[in-house]
Sequence to fold (275 residues):
Amino acid sequence: MHAQKPRWLPINASGKKPLNCYKSAMSTPARISYAIMAVLLALVGLLHLATLALTTLFGYFALRQFSFGRSKALGVTIYIIAVTAIGYGLFFFSRQAYIALPKIAEATIPAVVGYAEKQGLELPFTDYASLKTLALNEVKDKFANVGRYARTAAFQLAMLIVGLVVAVSLFLKAGWQMEGDPNAAKDSLYSLVSQEIALRFRTFYRSFATVIGAQIVISTINTGLTSVFLLWNGYPYVMVIIVLTFLCGLLPIIGNHRRPDQKPDVADAAWTRAR
Fold:
């Protein structure tokens, strides 16, 4: 007596044989590739290489967009121009922010303090002068470690530059052993693991590209609507606020900081005083 086939197995049109639509257990090269990816992601966090990883991913994403799927030379050219323009723009913005942010703080802090008092919260400052004093005290306390902070800043700047260069290198030539490579031994473990790792990186990049692409669109729409509102109502320091809105909009956590039930009393009061 033959054992009855499980009912959940799909059958083909003739009703005779089950379709081979279920994948077999994960292969050894696939397991190794997932393990390598896990180790690499852990090392990125442990070695503080997030700046390098994000810069490389974002740079590669920008290069693919700038090439328009046609010319790599065109993509690299536009990429270099964009990086130069963004660098100069951030320098110019930092100068404007250095002038505008203290004035914004002077108008905003009283509203924040008033809101905190209504909520029963105690803040370590009551006005801009006390906030400035508090910040200076913090700087003095940490001045002894200025060498460590300088090294950290220099390290992150170096990682940023390296990431921009690595993105171009990967865009021009990514040296993965994929199927169809005549120099690769198709049956070797190294070749199979290389193919699996390439697939892991491709999937990881596609996920990143989907998220960052959507976030750029969302931030652009949000910045555009905010710009119209600020210009229409004649708010001060529009340029600084627009740039900050776009930059913060790229970070999903910052972009969703307000609770649905939170009242806009602080923002409204602050801008009412600033105008």
Summary: The chain has a mean pLDDT of 75. Residues 48-174 form one domain.
